[in-house]
Amino acid sequence: MTHLERLVAQAVADAEERAKSPLPRDPPPPRPFPRGGLIAEVKRSSPSKGAINPALDPATLAGAYERGGAAALSVLTERVSFGGSLQDLREARGAVQLPVLRKDFIVTGFQVREARAHGADAILLIAAAAPLSTLRELRQLARELRLAVLFEVHEESELEAARACEPDLLGVNARNLKTLQVHPDAFGRLAPLARGIAPLVAESGVRTADDVRRYRGLGADLVLVGEALSSSADPESATRALVRA
């Protein structure tokens, strides 16, 4: 199995366990997701880096991001490899007025429904994680639940799936989730081919103001930053520096 296949299998197993309990009722109304700016991520750990900030407080970190000028939050909810949870999502969203993306390996309708039930405003769908037919069904369900969709690609061959799913945002991940290798040229290669599908989000490898300026120059409408902000000793200032860039 590839790294991505293992991550998806674990996420599905965890979701099946959670499905034994009823979903929360009467979630807060969804907040509109931005089409430009910085998406700041609440991230405890990752398969590639290991521990990033396992003891972080989601509400405190989310507040720092909001004060720093972030346009939206991303919260990792995958348990085993990223140390996240839906509780992290609820705490982060409850502390701010920003919209929140649930970042997980979503391949089932239950995961989409539970994202909205726990207060998510957007979900991540990954082109390489499921067949196109499944991705289109999940995208339609998200639309019915008023969830925005960030659709993630890594290869040119995945752009047709992105067009077919008509996402709200199109993310280009420099990290190949099948191998965990980072390809810094991925955004530059795909951006010219992806224009017109949806506003573009640069993902992975964004650490400094120079990185932000480079991606903006290549056509990114948004940048998603995780490790560099979650691990910062002063996340508010770190966020502000990237927003200004």
Describe the structure.
Helices cover 40% and strands 18% of the residues. The strands form two sheets. It has an eight-stranded parallel beta barrel, surrounded by eight helices. The protein has a two-stranded antiparallel sheet with strand order 2-3. The protein has a single domain, classed as Alpha-Beta Barrel (TIM Barrel), CATH 3.20.20.70. It starts with a helix and ends with a helix. It is α/β, with parallel strands linked by helices and 245 residues long. It has ten helices and ten strands. α2 packs across α3 and α2 packs parallel to α10.
Keywords:
two-stranded antiparallel sheet, 10 strands, TIM Barrel, alpha/beta, eight-stranded parallel barrel, 40% helix, 245 residues
What's a concise summary of this model?
This protein is an alpha/beta fold and 245 residues long. The protein has ten helices and ten strands. The chain has one domain (3-18, 35-244): TIM Barrel.
Question: What is the rounded distance between the termini?
Answer: 39 Å
CATH class: Alpha Beta
CATH superfamily: Aldolase class I
Number of structural domains: 1
> Low-confidence segments, ≥5 residues, pLDDT <50?
none
For the secondary structure, the number of strands is 10
CATH topology: TIM Barrel
Q: Helices and strands in order, then pairings?
A:
Blueprint: H1 3-18, E1 37-42, E2 45-46, E3 50-51, H2 58-68, E4 72-76, H3 86-94, E5 100-103, H4 109-117, E6 122-126, H5 132-144, E7 148-153, H6 159-165, E8 169-173, H7 186-194, E9 200-203, H8 209-218, E10 222-225, H9 227-230, H10 235-244
Parallel strand pairs: 1-4, 1-10, 4-5, 5-6, 6-7, 7-8, 8-9, 9-10
Antiparallel strand pairs: 2-3
Helix pairs in contact: 2-3, 2-10
